[in-house]
Specification:
Blueprint (H helix, E strand, L loop, with lengths): L11 H12 L20 E6 L3 H4 L9 E3 L3 E6 L14 E3 L18 E4 L10 H12 L12
Antiparallel strand pairs: 1-3, 1-4, 2-3, 2-5
Amino acid sequence: MTGAGGTRVLSLDSLVRLQRGRTAPDAPRRLPVPDGMTAPMGCDAVAVPARLGPLVLPRLPRVGCVYADEAHWWWLVPSDSDYALDWPAPAHYAAGAILPDGPAATGDAGLPGLIHRPDGTLPYTPPIPLYLALCRLTGTTPDWSRPVTA
């Protein structure tokens, strides 16, 4: 949000989120849903090594919120987008959009920075096109195409 004169104005939700982060040092690092957006289906995230991020983007029909740091690019997806899917290595699926422990990245509270925000109010990248793009880039056969063994 911006106020008069182009100054950045934080919403009450943002201020509460910042305060909670200060009072709970052991709280998990979670990718936020940007102000003005809603996540009615909950929020998980899929990470890929940063070298693959630019290769994934043009393969997607719609791109939701994407965060990046030096090591990874993160896509917000609806909760449970890992149901019955084995995301191909080296992708990492993060339930609750909780970042794994490790060195803090740049940005607010050590979070990756938002590099893409879609128009509208939904932060999601559709998970099936993202899954297929990652399978294609990693040379992985999608789960439903693999032969069934007894």
